[in-house]
Structure formats: structure tokens, C-alpha cells
Amino acid sequence: MKKYKILTGLTLISLIAVFMLSCGGGSNQITLRWWHFWTDPVIKPVIDKMITDYEMANPGVKIEQTGLTWANGHEKIVIAFSSGTSPDIVELGSDWVAEFSYSGNLASITEAVKNDTAQFLGWTPGIYNDSIYAFPWILGTRVLFLNRDLLTQAGFDEKFIPYNWDDLKQACFAIHDLADDIYGFGSNAAEKHRLYKKVLPFFWALDGRIVSQNGKYAVFSSDKTYKALEYYKSLHDSCSIVDTQRRLEDAFLDGKIGVIISGDWLLKRIRNENRDINFFTTIIPGPEYPGKSFVGGEYLAVSKTSPHKDEAIKFIKYITSTENQLIFCKANYTANPSSREATRDEFFDNDPDLQVFIRQLELSRMTTPTPNWVYIEDIIETSIEEILFNEAPIAETIYEANARIQELIKDR
Predict the structure, then answer these.
(1) In this model, does residue 272 exceed pLDDT 80?
(2) pLDDT in tens, 380-397
(3) 285, 163 Cβ separation under 8 angstroms
(4) Can 15-141+296-365 and 143-283+372-409 be said to share one CATH topology?
């Protein structure tokens, strides 16, 4: 009788162990490897909490994070894909998705997310050859920051807002004339990945394009490109201080620049540093109000070789949900959700500056998805640098740039 009871107890323990295995423990545990760029000490605990909550709700899934940096993240992702060691989920810059889609490294997620497209902004970079390869997560645009005190000193009404290019130029020139150490406009130096993002808004305000919509032809050399560069150069040459993005923002916060173009990170800096500056934000104007701005973003994609594609997509939908995007934006004091529902939250409505960024997102354009964008970007930036800093003629420079861009895309 004692032997029978012992055997029964052992059998019961075995059954419990089998049951636990079948519920996601042991060998049935799925580990999703996720590479992303959010290692900032403010936002990383927020993401950690989201992952913990997800794992508790999905006990058979473990999320393994790897932090990347923008300085070398692209290179690491390229090496991982080429060596067959890519993660299940990878965060990509908006300009990179077409590159990895074209090379066959990403899984199409079209069927899983096609019913979600109306609820989110920013799908363009995630689509290649009519298939969706990446889900928009965090977007980012730029707006005008203006010093109200300098405008008032320059004779402008306290409610003045530049509604068009003429208004903007008039304001910048008037502020520039206030004193020798005051500048009307902050023009970016030749910083990689930055300068062209400040020029393209003027180009896009004229409905200019770099590459045709079908991606087959370079159309950068046009009268629209010429007019946009001519306008920006007029600000750059006549009423600007030229410096790095960080130093321009420093000078703006010190009351030395009337107008700069910047992102919502500057709002966070003003708040965190308790800066005493009478400023306001507004959307970037065009020849006639309104204009457009540059918008980029961070996208989540699934590796084509991942053995857990369905689980990876499920996690992507979780991390990009309206609720989690709002948690992210509130923690980081940013206005960059891809969720349309999130953009309507009172968090943005109650903050006039954040609301400007939300409005600007709707009035922005992304670059045409093309596998060679990183090289096209370099051509554009080099051309702008030649025009602004070396007095290269605009027409000839953009013509030569167009020919080089066409060479890159002709076989795509």
C-alpha cells in the first residue's frame, strides 16, 4: 500500500511537469530576439515594463533585447543579415527598409497588418513592390521655432506667424538687423544626415521629387529644386549663423537666433533645463501657407529567417498599440506617434507646441522608398554643401546630382 501511494505521487508530479511544459515552460519556450535603438535611460525602463507585461500575458514567450546606436547600428544589422545571425525583430530607420526588403532579408507582413493600415500614419517607407515589410512605430518631423521677443523687437505684432516664404524671409532679415550678435536664421553646417532634412521641406513645399513614384527615374533636377535651393541659400547667405544642430539650438535658447528648424527633442530640452525663453512653434510655411516638412521614423520588421514570425508580428502589434505609443510619448515628452488614435489624445491637445508637431506630421513627406537611399542621400547632401559652402552654381550642380542618382537606380 505504501509503495502504491509513492508511485501515485511520483506519477502526479510527472503529470504536473508535462502540463507545465505544454503551457509554455521548458522546451516550448519561445525567445524573440529584438534589436532596437531605444537605450535612452529615460525611455528604456518604459520599454522594459512593456516587455515584462507582455511576457506575463504570454508566459510562453521571452523577449530578448539588444540595444543599438545610430552611429553603427546600420552596419551591425547588415552584418547580422549577411552572416545569418539576424534577430527575429529589428528596428530600422525609415530610409533603410527598402534596402533590406530588396535584398530579401525581411519577411512580408502584408496579410497580417493590411487591415491596420488606416489606423496608422507613415506606411510609405515600409512598403516595397506593393508588399508591406515594416510597421511604423515612432515618427519624427521638424517645425519652426521662433523667438517671440526678438520678433517684437524687430517690430512684428505679438500675434505674428510666418504664413509663407515672404513672411519668413521678412522676419529673419528684420531680426538679423537688430544687432551684430543677433542672427535671423540658423542654417545647418555640413553635418551628415542633418543638412538635407532642413532643405527638403522647402523643396517639398513646391511638390518636388527626388525619384519618380515608381522608383525608376531620378527627377531631382527641376525648376522646383532650383527654386527651393535658391530660397534656402538666400537665408543662409544673408541672415544666418551656420553651425551644428546642437550649437544652433544652444544659440536659439540663449536668445541669439530668431528662427531655427528643429524637432520635438528641443521642447524636451527647454522643459528639462527650465529655459526662460519666450518662444513659439509653427509649421514650416511654403510659398503659400501651409508648407511641408521632412518626416522620418523608426520601423519594426521581421527577419525572413525568423522561425517565430507569427509571434514576432504579434509582439510588434503590441508594442505599437495606441496605448503603448501614448505611454512612450508621455514618458519621453514627444509628439511622434504613428497611431492616428494616439494623435487625438488630450495629451497633445492640451500642449500647443506638441499639437504643432501633430499637425506637421500630417503636412510632411517621406522619401521615396528605394534600396539605394543611403547613397542617394549622400549625393543630395554633397550637392547642397557645394551650393551653400563652395558657391557652386545651383542648376549645374543639381543636374550632375540627378545623373548620379539615375545611375544608382537604373537597374532597380
Answers:
(1) yes
(2) 999 999 999 999 999 999
(3) yes
(4) yes
Does the domain formed by 143-283+372-409 have CATH 3.40.190.10?
A: yes
Burial class (CB in 10 A: 0-12, 13-18, 19+), 352: exposed
* Closest residue by Cα to residue 353 from 253, 242, 278: 278
CATH dotted code for 15-141+296-365: 3.40.190.10
Residue range 255-266: mean pLDDT, rounded: 97
Identify the CA nearest to 361 among candidates 94, 121, 91, 195: 121
∠ CA 50-84-82, rounded to 5°: 110
Contacts of 71 (CB under 8 A, 6+ apart): none
Secondary structure E strands in 112-170: 127-128, 131-132, 135-141, 143-147
Residue 272, all three cell numbers:
528639462
Residue 251: C-alpha distances to residues 14, 154, 186, 194 (Å): 70, 18, 9, 17
Q: What percentage of the chain exceeds 70 in pLDDT?
A: 93
Mean pLDDT computed over 321-326: 97
pTM of the entire predicted model: 0.88
Residues contacting residue 112 through CB under 8 Å, at least 6 positions apart: 310, 313
**pLDDT tens-digit map of 342-355:** 999 999 999 999 99
Output phi, psi for 251, to 5 deg.
-65, -35
The domain locations on the chain are 15-141+296-365, 143-283+372-409
